[in-house]
From TrEMBL:
Organism from which the protein derives: Hibiscus sabdariffa (roselle)
PROSITE patterns: HCY
Leader sequence residues: none
Alphabetical keyword list: Metal-binding, Methyltransferase, Transferase, Zinc
UniProt name for this protein: Hcy-binding domain-containing protein
Domain of life assignment: Eukaryota
Lineage: Eukaryota, Viridiplantae, Streptophyta, Embryophyta, Tracheophyta
Binding site for Zn(2+): C252, C319, C320
UniProt domain Hcy-binding: residue ranges: 12-334
Required cofactor(s): Zn(2+)
PANTHER family assigned to the protein according to its UniProt record, in alphabetical order: HOMOCYSTEINE S-METHYLTRANSFERASE-LIKE ISOFORM 1 (PTHR46015:SF1), ZGC:172121 (PTHR46015)
Pfam families, per the entry: S-methyl_trans (PF02574)
Amino acid sequence: MEAFNIPATPSLMKEFLRQTGGAAVIDGGLATELERHGADLNDPLWSAKCLLTSPHLIRSVHLDYLEAGADIIITASYQATIQGFEAKGFSREQSESLLKKSVEIAIEARQMYYEGCSKSSGVGIGDGKVLKKRPILVAASVGSYGAYLADGSEYSGNYGDAMTVKALKEFHCRRVQVLAEAGPDLIAFETVPNKIEAQAYAELLEEEHLKIPAWFTFNSKDGINVVSGDSLHQCVSIAESCKQVVAVGINCTPPRFIHDLILAIKKVTTKPIVIYPNSGERYDADRKEWVQNTGVKDEDFISYVSKWYEVGASLLGGCCRTTPNTIKAIYKTLSHRSPATPKQKL
């Protein structure tokens, strides 16, 4: 974010957090909100389908989250892969263009938000919206290989014995290059389910000389290990040793596990800890739907947030099935933050 003199270097996140008062708010679930706006996501491309059919809805959801107080918005590229688009009949060039589009839409939403702030006389919350000039980062989402398979294996981490770090690097390489070139502030490697994929991402960042910061977030189903059963300690150590990784943490994991996972991560890393759990609902991979009444209510989710911040998380938001209302409540919970004065105004 040049307007706030935040460098696109390994120091990005620490400078960003300095300007946001030590904690920052991440956005919430994308697919749930797109469906609420009328999108049909019954497709292997999932939310990435809207890059083809309704980019305006993606922009609207990004704006909803910015107006709810999010300081970081994550692009609609979690399930967007070159291989996935090509399977739909798109050329390599068209596939790369769609990846770039996911970043462009988020950047457009940020600019529209800033324009809205300029027109608003106040700062803070007006008409239920947070209209406040502040540093905002665009994080380009990279979902796991399991997300591309669209069979729920990002929730198991089971890619089979034949899968290797080398094969995963080949799968992700061009996609990560295209996203990095599109101009986001960082890459969000999300829902990382196993150690070999974390290793593949770390090697890609270093070997391809990608001059962009990144975060790694893992998912867990037992509150101890990542979903594959691999050691969380080992996975976080990979992120800790990669200079371009500027934050590490957990996403798409039930809230009840987060407190202990933060404590475990703190033992391994000195980097900012990023936390954006799902609502706690269980996903049925066979039926490709969330099981109703298996999650926590917004008020229960929010009751955890202060505790997560107190024990060490500095980037907090929501993942699947969380909404702008969830994010607005997180924003209010963290409203005690005292941002440093930006060196340069928008």
